[in-house]
Amino acid sequence: MGDAASGRGHVVYPPRSAEDIFKDYRARRSAILRALTHDVEDFYAQCDPEKENLCLYGYANEAWEVALPAEEVPTELPEPALGINFARDGMNRRDWLTLVAVHSDSWLLSVAFYYAARLNRNDRKRLFGMINELQTVFEVVSGARQQQSKERPSMDNGGRAKPSVKIENNGKASEEAYGEDDSDHGETLCGTCGGIYSADEFWIGCDICERWYHGKCVKITPAKAESIKHYKCPSCSNKRARQ
């Protein structure tokens, strides 16, 4: 089992709010990532194909464990992929770790939305929005997002893609020349209302947290956006004010 890391805030179990469920998700994700990266040699050794069906568990205290599946039926929580050890020696090591990562992402989401079953529609969207701000386990293990960033043009002097500002002109959405197209934002959620990105609406991205917002949600008009060199969302502005 991996070493437990310090917790990030107190969460009462089972978690009830979107924020507490996200904290649980983040902690379990950290545990899985540790197993597949920092502790990968230990993880690899524990996944002996000669043993019975094994699962990779990530816990809310950020510890990980390779263990047999739960015996009780039905289980207290959704179970991770069964038998991850069997394919270890029959695949390229990197491909096998990537496969475990994909199954782990599926499990992490299933646990989060098991807890989220009693949330309302808006809270579920907000939860998914927070989760979607993090890289998936697959993206970290495979380096997929880093590769996408290398291939994306129009970077500013700091090496980070400039945020786009979406402005409506005569019913058609136009984009200031920052080198990103609509496909880059297909799954973007508004950081305030959780609404899904639509090309026919005005959006603005925060230069600090890199989250996206409807202009109407943060009271920024297209005309006002023209005069903003670096936009800071209300949340980031409040954080700076409290410091």
TrEMBL record:
Q: Note the InterPro entries from the entry.
A: Alfin (IPR045104), Alfin_N (IPR021998), PHD_AL_plant (IPR044104), Zinc_finger_PHD-type_CS (IPR019786), Znf_FYVE_PHD (IPR011011), Znf_PHD (IPR001965), Znf_PHD-finger (IPR019787), Znf_RING/FYVE/PHD (IPR013083)
* One GO cellular component term noted in the UniProt record for this chain: nucleus
PHD-type domain segment(s) = 187-239
Q: How does it assemble?
A: Interacts with H3K4me3 and to a lesser extent with H3K4me2.
Is Transcription given among the entry's keywords? yes
Please quote what the entry notes about the protein's domains. Answer: The PHD-type zinc finger mediates the binding to H3K4me3.
Q: What family does this chain come from, according to its entry?
A: Belongs to the Alfin family.
User: Which PANTHER family does this one have?
Assistant: CPG BINDING PROTEIN (PTHR12321), PHD FINGER PROTEIN ALFIN-LIKE (PTHR12321:SF179)
User: Which GO MF terms are attached to this record?
Assistant: histone binding; transcription cis-regulatory region binding; transcription coregulator activity; zinc ion binding
Compartments in which it is found: Nucleus
Protein name as it appears in the record: PHD finger protein ALFIN-LIKE
- The source organism is Dichanthelium oligosanthes
Q: Which UniProt keywords apply?
A: Chromatin regulator, Metal-binding, Nucleus, Transcription, Transcription regulation, Zinc, Zinc-finger
Its GO biological process terms?
chromatin organization; regulation of DNA-templated transcription
Q: What functional role does this protein have?
A: Histone-binding component that specifically recognizes H3 tails trimethylated on 'Lys-4' (H3K4me3), which mark transcription start sites of virtually all active genes.
Per the UniProt record, one Pfam family is: Alfin
Region Disordered, residue ranges: 143-185
Question: Where mainly found?
Answer: nucleus
